[in-house]
Amino acid sequence: MRLRTRWLLAALATLAAVGVCAAILSVASPSGSSGASGTGPHNPVSHSPVPLNPDPGPSSPASPSPVPHAGPSSPGPSGTGAVSACGTALCTGGAPWHMYGATIYNPGVVPYRSGLKDPADTIALARDAHLNTIRITDFLDVNGSPSTAPYDPARWRLVDGVIAAARSAGMHVDLGLADYRAMLWNNCIDPYTADWSSFLSFVADRVNTVDGSVYRDDPTLALVSIAGEPEPANKPYAFNASATGRPCTLTYSTGDLTAFYRQAIAVWQTRHPAVLIDTGGLGYLNETHSGIDWRTIFALPGNATCAIKTYGGMQAWAPTAAAYCASLGKPLIDEEFGWQQQVGDDQRAADFAATYAMLHSLHAAGAIFWNLGYQTGPTSYEVGPATPKTFAMIQLGATG
């Protein structure tokens, strides 16, 4: 309960500091948002059919009732207990645990001070922000060959390093796999009808080169997220495939998308993992004709959470997801939200405060913002010491 209380107290404190009206307005139309579409920092409709960074952009505790294959809550070497879903909450060791995190990757800041290439500073910054979860994404070559690039040992060693560093610090990781979708798409392969079995099995069976942990059983991994924010279904996407340089048109149906998530979850569960899996945060659900059957997808057996992303119109739509998730008895997670630095540090702090207050009111089980790091610039979404008021807002809302 402490996280939810501190979210609310932090939100109220920041609202008082930077202006109640601005923050309240930001709930309905957050600064820097993309409007009704609900897309995030890398709007795939505006820029390309799949974002260049494809996955960029608390709950009232019920009686613990872990979802299938949730695994034990055995502590790791640094006391990181396995995460399970217990009713509408997440739990570790049978007690409610609230995910409070940020995505990390290096957007090009040199020398490296955070991101996959600097695990130690990444974890130090996350601890300074009082986060308990790091979300890893954007680590594969999305223009590489689907037969080799998904298994690139050098890139996976970077992931190993961040997971091991998080484990040593007693933190958790949300591992996003949307790069594989982007890789398929950029090679003009429909990612929602392709067979992901080999790739998902590879991830499940991977042995961390730093500490020897097997991914599927590593309690550091709170979640594996398949590929969130799929584009609306039932429409053709015509583009030049960046990996091949040739024109490409891909179309997938509502049924294709639902079947994809069902099959991917089933493949993961055949490895009998102790690590939860979910779809990744869904977007566009506020659109009348998105073609995404979110009710069926959220309800899929083995889909551990109802994960959404709250850019643009998705923020006002979030209560719809919360009500449905409560009826399913599943946790609601806001896997991604954020604002560009150009809106100003005061306004961003207010936007974060309002979002955390909203998530508190919806009894969300977790929140992960985009993006933790040191980059500065008008279009950057990064939060760090260079944006002191927003960074302080993150610290205020954390578990400490």
Please describe the topology of this protein.
Layout lengths: L1 H17 L1 H9 L54 E4 L2 E4 L2 E3 L1 E6 L14 H10 L4 E4 L16 H16 L3 E5 L1 H9 L10 H9 L15 E5 L11 E4 L6 E4 L3 H17 L5 E3 L15 H6 L6 E4 L4 H15 L3 E5 L8 H17 L4 E4 L18 H9 L4
Parallel strand pairs: 4-5, 4-13, 5-6, 6-7, 7-10, 11-12, 12-13
Antiparallel strand pairs: 1-2, 2-3, 8-9
Helix pairs in contact: 1-2, 1-10, 2-10, 3-4, 10-11
Give a verbal description of the structure:
The chain is of the alpha/beta class and 400 residues long. It has one domain (2-396): Glycosidases (TIM Barrel, Alpha-Beta Barrel), CATH 3.20.20.80. It contains eleven helices and 13 strands. The strands form three sheets. It has an eight-stranded parallel β-sheet with strand order 10-7-6-5-4-13-12-11, with helices on one face. Helix 1 (2-18) runs antiparallel to helix 10. It starts with a helix and ends with a helix. Residues 1-8, 14-39 and 42-79 have low confidence and may be disordered.
- Along the chain, the helix and strand elements come as HHEEEEHEHEHHEEEHEHEHEHEH
Q: Please, what is the CATH homologous superfamily? A: Glycosidases
Number of domains: 1
**For this structure, what is the CATH class?**
Alpha Beta
| Average pLDDT rating | 84
Report the uncertain regions: 1-8, 14-39, 42-79
Beta-sheet strand percentage? Answer: 5-15%
Helicity level: 25-40%
CATH architecture: Alpha-Beta Barrel
Question: How would you write the strand order of the largest sheet?
Answer: 10-7-6-5-4-13-12-11
Q: Label the overall shape.
A: globular
Rounded to an integer, what's the Rg over CA atoms? 19 Å
What's the helix count? Answer: 11
Counted beta strands: 13
Give the class from helix and strand content and strand pairing: alpha/beta
Give the end-to-end Cα distance, rounded to a whole number of Å: 13 Å
Q: Report on the biggest sheet.
A: 8 strands, parallel
CATH topology: TIM Barrel
